[in-house]
Structure formats: C-alpha cells, structure tokens
C-alpha cells in the first residue's frame, strides 16, 4: 500500500474571496514543499469553511485505505463548532500542526490586512479547544513548517500513523498453538481484533508440512543462492540450510496466500518437521514479516507493525527475549537472544549461517540459524500485554553495546544492552508493570512514536526511562487502573 496524508486547512468566509484564494495557494505550496522532506506525501485537500466541507473530507478520508491520517492547520480563524460533525466521525489518526506561513513578523509591512490574513496563532487555539473538548486523540506539533525539527516530528508521527494502518489490516498466522502453560502469550483475540484490528487465527502444522512437501528443488536452489549472497556460510551442512529454505518457501506461500504479515510457532509442535524454523524465520523477518516464538501472536504482530514504522518500511526492529544478566557491579548488562529467531536487521556485521544442536523441542536434526552480534546504539524494547479488559503497551529505553565478551560457544544471534534507569531498577519496573519476556527491540522506532501509536489505538502506555522510579511507577500504574476502569 502506498500511503499518503491529507492536509486540511481551516478558514471561514468572513475574510472574503481574495484572502481565501491566498490561503488555498499557500496551503498547496506548503503541502508540496513538505512532501519533499517528509517520508510520505502530504496532499492538500481543502480549505474548509463549512461544516459540510469538513464532514465530507473526513468521510472521504475514512473510506480511502491509502489515506493514513490527516494533518490540520488553521491559517486564519476557523470557528470550531463547524469541525464537530467531522471530527467525531474521524477514524484516521489526526495531527494538529500549529504553525504559520511566515516565519517572522514583517516590521515594515504589518498592518490590519496582514493580521486578518495571518491569524494562525488565533485560529489554532480555537481549533485546539475543540479537540480537547471532544477528547479526541491527536498529536499537536508546534513550530515553523519549514524547520527541520518540525519535519522530524511530523515524519515520526506519520510513521506511527502508518503503524496504525498496518495494525488495522494485520493478519497473524499461528502454526499450532501456544507453548503449554505460558501465561503472557495468551490474550483475548476478540478484544484485540476490536481494538487493534488484528485477525489472529491458527493453521495446523500439518498444513505447513503439506505445502513444504510441494516445494521443488529448483525453488530451494534459488533461495539458497539468496542466502549465500546475503550471509556468510559457516557450515558444511548444506542439507540443513536447504531444509530451512524449504520451510521458508512454504511459510511464505501460506502467509502471502492469506494476506498475513506475521506468524508464530512453538518448538513443542513440530509434527512432521525435522527442524524448528530458524534461518527460515530470520530471513522472513528480514523481509518485513513479524514473528513470535512459543506461539506469542501479540509480539509477532507488534514486530511487523514496528518494522513498517521503521526506516524504509522494514527498520531495525526484531523479536527479542531477555535471556540472562551480567550483574557485576558497575557492569550490569542484559543479554538478549532467542533459540534461533532474531532478525538480521539488528546485526552489527554480516551474519553467518551455522548449524548446531538445539537441546529443546522436537528437532530430529540440527537446525541452521543466523549467528551475529547486535549493533551498538540507543534503542527501545516494547511489550504488549493483556491486562484483562484492556491492553497495556510497555516501552523501556535501552542502550545497546558491543557484547563485552565473545561467547564463542553460544551459537545464537545476540544483543547486549544497558537498561534505563539501571539494570536492576529497570528489571524491577518492568516486572512491576507486567512486561513479558518477549519484546520487540527497535533501533529505529522511538518511544515517542510508540506513545503516539498507543494513543491512536486508545490503549494504555507505560514508559520506563532514565528518570523512572519504582515509587512513581507504582503510583502511575495505580492511577492508570482507576482511569481505565472508569473508561471501560
């Protein structure tokens, strides 16, 4: 889908046709220039002057799948009552850009004609009131429309809005069920579909095996050449690599046939398969598909959504799990990994394909997988949990580092990081909030974008930062419980 955003500018008839003509020309110019620097096109739609114009453009936006959101701005004073009928029916993300056409006050030119034309400081406050009065979820961005800081914030909001569009059409394919007795991978699929738009359904592992048996050697040959071009081959066991290629081809065929962008499986259910998909899952994630281990459909969908929100539509976002800690005083780190399935978009160097024994699950033969160290940089980890009656999105700021030791006998992809506010305080806060052991780790998507996404989806958001304390978090969670119970 090629997404765009609509620019709706507010005014009124009071100023006369000459002013309205100027407003329209400026709005068209602004949309064109902003489209050159923003990640998605901004399409000027209308200078809205009546209730009907606003209601009509909102109706059109709601039914246009390519419209990922609307950006509004009031060049002049735009009476807010005429926005009510449109806004109460708006089903797309909304950003209120509080700006003005001119950057400076023109000392020698300013007169009452100038003041009548350039009333954004006046109009945007009226426009802001109606958003607050209607309690509408919206992003307010203030600043000069040609400044790089405004471009960055608008672009980040656009990516979050695209995450909403992807969420609304998300389909998740579960190969088998969840890992037995695990609590956090469960959840209310009906509520999630009503709230987030996700369609989550199960396909038998036998269905996958049937498609695998139809994969040809020629198809496998082509994919193996792609592996060789993308990764270093560090194993002589080509049979294991070819088997992973067969699994990937079959899974991709099934995903694409059903329009699914995310999938999950579990090592407890590999009936008819020789290996748990490792390399196969990793390479599918590199193509933008979301994945969740142990049947975790929530993290698989969130991985796909955050990949779509990241740079170039498949940013450095991946399924992750906290595995073990380094608790030496002054050198506290978390080591994140998984048995086989970490996306190579996180890699600091070219990943290598290795084959090793996997001492868990129903593997008849040793699975091939990508092994690498994650890159350095600031990142976040995100967990979506079902609190019973509502969803909570937990986000923690982290700083990824080069692993402090080589770990030569650990044959998995791994990332090491420092958590905010510290490892132990961060763990206490994460556990207090109910964060899952599975997360999405992202270098490209920011906490602000995830807050925007949660606001657009109308779910709870909890952010663990360098300034978070256990006491403050407990109070926040207590107040959130009260607020969301009242909201329900």
Structural overview:
The chain has 488 residues and is α/β, with parallel strands linked by helices. It has 15 helices and 19 strands. It has helices at residues 17-35, 51-63, 84-87, 112-117, 120-133, 148-168, 189-196, 205-213, 217-230, 238-258, 279-286, 297-309, 423-433, 447-457, 470-487, and strands at residues 4-10, 42-48, 67-74, 94-98, 139-142, 171-175, 199-203, 232-233, 262-264, 290-292, 317-328, 331-337, 352-355, 368-371, 377-386, 391-401, 414-419, 438-442, 460-464. The strands form four sheets. Strands 11-12-17-16-15-18 form a six-stranded antiparallel barrel. Helix 1 links the parallel strand 1 and strand 2 (42-48). Helix 13 (423-433) runs parallel beside helix 15. The longest helix has 21 residues, at 148-168. It is elongated.
Sequence of strands across the biggest β-sheet: 11-12-17-16-15-18
Uncertain parts = none
Return Rg in Å: 25 Å
Q: What integer is the average pLDDT?
A: 94
> Would you tell me the structural class of the helices and strands?
alpha/beta
Q: How would the global form be characterised?
A: elongated
State the end-to-end CA separation: 34 Å
Helical proportion, percent range? 25-40%
Q: What share of residues are in beta strands? A: 15-25%
Number of helices: 15
Biggest pleated-sheet summary: 6 strands, antiparallel, barrel
